[in-house]
Write a structure and sequence with these properties.
about 850 residues; alpha+beta; Immunoglobulin-like; Jelly Rolls; 5 domains; 6-stranded antiparallel β-sheet; 6-stranded parallel β-sheet
C-alpha cells in the first residue's frame, strides 16, 4: 500500500485515538410511541419500527392474519387512517448544536408529519428517506412528533380516475411501496401502514460526512487504484485533515473545504490486493476502511466501511448463438447458482438479524453464489447486504417494479428518480451488488399478457414511452452516474412467447407450471441464463399444522385453501404428481411427495443448465423463501425448514457435479467443474439392481478442465432394466445416483431400515443402513433442528451418517419416510440396538 504522509505525521503513524471527539449526536426515536385509528380506536402503545398490523395484533384487536382464514378478517385495517405520536426530549447539548435534523428512514406510505402541532411535510414513497431540519422551526426541551397515515385507497382512487389511461395491474402502480403487499400468487393481501424503518435525530455543529463512496478505478493482481469520493457538509470555508485507515495503514490528507455540500476525492493505492471472491471460489475478503474528519484538533465525524476489492461485469456480447449473458468476476466467467429472494415476512419488523444470518447461512451451505432480490418486494435492510458481502454471495438487485406498467407523469418520474438515487447511494459500497435490474416482467407483460388489447396506436405508444422514461432513461442514467455496477433494463429480456429467449439475454421459463409442460421441457430448452423458473410444493408438516392450528395434517381445510394463492395450484401439483409419482391417499405422504415432485423438476432444470455451460451461465430458481406460511414455490418454508428442493439443490449446486442424462436411448455422464483448476481422477461407473447386486461396472481416468462441462462416458439403454436398476457414478468423493425412468415406474422393494442414534455435542448422529435401495429417504422429528442431509437415496448395504443439529435432549420421535413405503406397505424400522 502506498502511504501518503501529509499534515500530522505523528498522527498518521500512530493513529488518532488521542484526539478528542466532537462527533454528530445521533438518537433513534423508538420509545414512548402511541397509535390510534382516526374514528376507530383510542390511543394505545406502539412499536417503532413497526406497522399497524403488528401493533393491532399486540393489543389483540385483530387475530393473527397468518393463521386459519384470518387474513380475510383484517382487510378493514388498510382501509382506515391511523396516526402515531411520541414525545421526545432535546438536551441542552443538542439544542445548542448548530444543526439538528430528523431523518425518517421509511414511512409507509402516505403520511403527514407534525412537530408540536405544526405541519411539516407530506410523504408519498415508502422507499425514500425524508429529512426535516429542526433548526428552521421552534423547538423545546420536550416536543411532540405526530405522523398521520392516510389509507392508500383514498389516494389511489383519485389517482386512477385522473390517469390518462387505465394501466394494467390496478391501483398498486400509483403507490411507491412494496408491491407484494397487494397480494401475489404466493402471498397474502396485507397492505401495511406505519413507521417501518427507524426515525433518527441527528445534531452537529460545523461539518460532517454526507456520503462516502469508494470507487474502483483500476484493479489487477499487482495493485488496486481507488478513488474515495467524499461528500462533506460544512458551514463555512475551512482547512481540515482527513485520515483514512485501511486495515492498519493510514493515509493523511489536507483538504480545503468550501461552504455547503461538496465532493472531495482521495486517491488510494493498494499493493498486491486481496481480491474478493464468492464463497465457492475463494475468500470473500473485506478491507476495513475507516474515515475521520479532523478540525480544530478534534474528530468531527467518523465512518467505517467494509469493502471488498473485485471487478464484476455483465458480459452481454453478440456471438454465434445470439448474445451472451454471463457475469465475469475478477476477469473470470462464473456460473451463477442460486434463487430468487422475496421479503422474509409481510411484516418487516418481524425480521430479526438472526433471521438474516440463518437464511443467508443456508444459502452458503447450499452452494449458492447469487440471490436475485425480486422487484416486487423491498430494497433490503443494510444487514442483508452486509452479510452477503461477508459470506461471498452476489446480489442481482431489482429496482422495485414488478409485473405492471407504471405512470409517466412528471411527479411520478421525479419521485422514482429520487428513490433510485437514494437507494443506489445507500447500497453502492456493497461488494455483493452485481447488477441493477430495472424491473421484473414489466416488458414481458406488455408484450405477452394481453395488456395492449383494445388500445389505440397512440395509447400504446404513450404507455410504452412512459415505460422507457423510467427503465431506459432515469434508472440506467442514475446507475451509471452514481455507481460502477451494470444495469439491465428488464428481466427477462425475452419471455416464453419469443423464440429469442434461448439465444440471448436472461429467461423466465414458466412453460413448466403455468402452461403445464412436462419437466423434460427444461432439458430441451436451455437459455443463456435462467433467472426464473419454479414449481410449487407443500411446506413442512410444522407449517401446515400452524396454518390450521391443529396437530394433525389436514389439506382440505379452508385455511389451507386460503394459503394457496395460485388459482390452479392444487390442480397443477396433482397433475404433475400423476405424471411422475404414485399418489398416496395419506395426506402426510402427499405432502412428502409434493416436495419430491418440486425438487425433481427444478433439479432437472439446474442440471440441464449446468451441463450446457458455457452456453448457459446461470440458474436461479423461483423462489428461495416465504413471507408467510403458505403453499408456494419456496425451497425453504416460512419457519426456515428445508424442503426437499433445498437439500437436492445443495447437491446440484456443488462446484464439482456429476450429471447424467438420456439422449437418443443413450446415457451420457457429464462432469461439471466450476472451479478455476483442472481436476484429475478416476471416474467409476457401476450399475446395480435395487438389492445391491452388481450388474456391470467400468472406470476411466479423466481430466476435467477448469470452469467446464463435458460428457465423459456414455452407454446404450438397450439392455438396461429401467424399472429395477440404478446407476452409481463416483468421482473425487462425489457420488451420483441416476434412475432410468420416472419414480412411479420403479419397482421399489420392501426392506428393513436400520438406524443407530447417538448423542453428540451439537445434537445427534444417525447411522442408516438398508438391505435394499431406499428411494428419497426423509427423516423428520417434531424437535427443532436441522438434518445435514435429507430426501436422499440410500444405497443397499452402505452406511449413511446424518447429523441432526439441535438443542433437543432426545430424538425418540425420529421418523423415516421413503418412496418404498408408498409403493409398498409401511416399512418396518428396527429399534436402536
Amino acid at each position: 500500500m502506498r502511504r501518503i504522509f501529509v499534515g500530522f505525521l505523528i498522527l498518521a503513524l500512530f493513529g488518532c485515538s488521542t484526539l478528542d471527539k466532537d462527533l454528530p449526536l445521533e438518537i433513534e426515536l423508538n420509545t414512548n410511541w402511541q397509535f390510534k385509528g382516526i374514528n376507530t380506536l383510542d390511543w394505545k402503545s406502539a412499536s417503532v419500527p413497526g406497522n399497524i398490523f403488528t401493533d393491532l395484533l399486540s393489543h389483540k384487536v385483530i387475530e393473527d392474519p397468518f393463521i386459519k382464514t384470518n387474513e380475510e378478517k383484517v382487510q378493514w385495517v388498510s382501509k382506515k387512517d391511523w396516526e402515531y405520536k411520541t414525545n421526545f426530549s432535546l438536551s441542552e447539548e443538542i439544542l445548542n448544536k448548530k444543526n439538528i435534523e430528523l431523518n425518517f428512514e421509511g414511512l409507509d406510505t402516505y403520511a403527514k408529519i407534525y412537530i408540536n402541532g405544526n405541519y411539516q411535510l407530506n410523504t408519498d414513497n415508502a422507499f425514500k428517506r425524508y429529512t426535516i431540519s429542526l433548526k428552521d422551526i421552534p423547538m423545546y426541551k420536550s416536543n411532540e412528533l405526530k405522523i398521520v397515515f392516510e389509507n392508500i385507497g383514498s389516494i389511489e382512487n383519485p389517482a386512477k380516475l385522473n390517469s390518462k389511461y387505465k394501466l394494467p395491474e390496478g391501483k398498486r402502480i400509483y403507490t411507491r411501496k412494496a408491491q407484494f403487499q397487494y397480494g401475489w400468487d404466493w402471498g397474502p393481501k396485507l397492505n401495511t401502514l406505519g413507521i417501518w424503518k427507524p426515525i433518527t435525530l441527528k445534531a452537529w455543529d460545523d461539518l460532517k460526512f454526507e456520503n462516502i463512496y469508494i470507487r474502483q478505478k483500476e484493479i489487477d493482481k499487482d495493485k488496486a487504484l481507488l478513488s474515495v469520493e467524499i461528500i462533506i457538509e460544512s458551514k463555512d470555508d475551512r482547512n481540515i485533515q482527513l485520515f483514512t485507515k485501511i486495515n492498519k495503514e493510514i493515509i493523511s490528507s489536507n483538504i480545503s473545504l468550501k461552504k455547503g455540500k461538496h465532493t472531495y476525492k482521495v486517491p488510494i493505492e493498494i499493493i498486491n490486493p486481496k481480491l474478493w471472491w464468492t464463497h465457492n471460489l475463494g475468500n470473500p475478503y473485506l478491507y476495513n476502511f475507516n474515515f475521520q474528519l479532523i478540525s480544530d484538533g478534534k474528530i468531527k465525524d467518523e465512518k467505517s466501511i467494509k469493502k471488498g476489492i473485485r471487478t464484476i461485469k455483465l458480459i452481454a456480447k453478440k456471438d454465434t448463438i445470439g448474445e451472451s449473458f454471463y457475469f465475469e468476476l475478477n476477469g473470470k466467467p462464473v456460473f451463477m447458482k442460486g434463487a430468487n429472494y422475496i421479503p422474509q415476512n409481510n411484516f418487516q419488523n418481524k425480521v430479526t438479524n438472526q433471521h438474516y444470518e440463518k437464511l443467508l447461512s443456508d444459502v452458503v451451505e447450499s452452494n449458492m453464489n447469487m440471490l436475485r432480490v425480486w422487484g416486487g418486494g423491498i430494497y433490503e435492510n443494510d444487514i442483508f447486504y452486509d452479510i452477503c458481502d461477508e459470506k461471498g454471495i452476489l446480489v442481482w438487485q431489482d429496482f422495485m417494479f414488478a409485473c405492471a406498467m407504471y405512470p409517466g407523469s412528471i411527479e411520478f418520474l421525479a419521485n422514482v428518480k429520487e428513490e433510485a438515487e437514494q437507494q443506489i447511494k445507500r447500497l453502492r459500497n456493497h461488494t455483493s451488488i452485481a447488477l441493477w435490474c430495472g424491473n421484473n416482467e414489466n416488458a414481458e407483460g406488455w408484450r405477452r399478457w394481453g395488456w395492449q388489447a383494445k388500445r389505440t396506436k397512440k395509447e400504446k405508444e404513450e404507455i410504452w414511452n412512459d415505460y422507457l422514461a423510467v427503465f431506459d432513461t432515469i434508472l440506467p442514467k442514475s446507475v451509471a452516474k452514481l455507481s460502477e455496477t451494470n444495469y439491465w433494463e428488464t428481466s427477462p429480456k425475452y419471455g416464453r412467447g419469443n423464440p429469442k429467449y434461448q439465444m440471448e439475454g436472461d429467461a423466465h421459463d414458466w412453460w413448466v407450471w403455468h402452461d403445464g409442460y412436462p419437466f423434460e421441457h427444461f432439458e430441451k430448452n436451455v437459455p443463456r441464463f435462467m433467472s426464473e423458473f419454479g414449481f410449487q410444493s407443500f411446506p413442512s408438516f410444522e407449517t401446515i399444522n400452524y396454518i390450521n392450528q391443529n396437530d394433525t395434517i389436514n389439506l382440505k381445510t379452508d385455511a389451507i385453501k386460503l394459503h394457496q394463492k395460485h388459482a390452479k395450484g392444487f390442480q397443477l401439483i396433482e397433475e404433475y404428481m400423476n405424471r411422475n409419482y404414485k399418489i398416496s391417499k395419506n395426506e402426510e405422504d402427499y405432502v412428502y411427495v409434493s416436495q419430491l415432485l418440486q425438487a425433481k423438476g427444478i433439479v432437472m432444470g439446474i442440471e440441464a443448465h449446468r451441463r450446457a455451460k458455457p452456453t448457459n451461465m446461470g440458474s436461479l430458481y423461483w423462489q428461495l423463501n416465504d413471507c408467510w406460511p403458505s403453499i408456494s414455490w419456496s425451497s425453504i418454508d416460512y419457519f426456515g425448514q428445508w424442503k426437499a428442493l433445498q437439500y437436492k439443490a445443495k447437491n446440484a449446486f456443488k462446484n464439482l457435479l456429476i450429471s447424467s442424462t438420456i439422449e437418443k436411448n443413450k446415457v451420457k455422464i457429464f462432469v461439471i467443474n466450476d472451479t478455476f483448476n483442472p481436476i484429475q481422477g478416476n471416474l467409476k461407473v457401476t450399475l446395480i439392481d435395487f438389492y445391491g447386486k452388481e450388474i456391470w461396472k467400468d472406470s476411466k481416468e479423466i481430466q476435467v478442465l477448469e470452469n467446464s462441462s463435458k460428457p465423459y462416458f456414455n452407454f446404450s439403454l438397450e439392455s438396461i432394466k429401467s424399472e429395477s436398476s440404478v446407476l452409481i457414478t463416483e468421482f473425487k468423493n462425489q457420488q451420483s445416483v441416476f434412475f432410468f425412468t420416472k419414480p412411479k415406474d420403479l419397482n421399489l422393494p420392501k426392506g428393513i431400515i436400520k438406524k443407530v442414534v447417538s448423542k453428540t455435542k451439537n445434537g445427534f448422529s444417525i447411522i442408516l443402513t438398508s438391505d435394499v435401495l431406499q428411494k428419497d429417504m426423509f427423516l423428520f422429528s417434531k424437535g427443532k433442528g436441522h438434518f445435514s442431509d435429507n430426501f436422499f437415496d440410500l444405497i443397499p448395504n452402505q452406511n449413511k451418517v446424518i447429523k441432526f443439529i439441535t438443542k433437543e435432549n432426545s430424538l425418540n420421535d425420529l421418523r423415516i419416510k421413503t418412496l418404498n413405503s408408498i409403493h409398498n406397505t409401511l416399512l418396518p424400522i428396527e429399534k436402536n440396538p
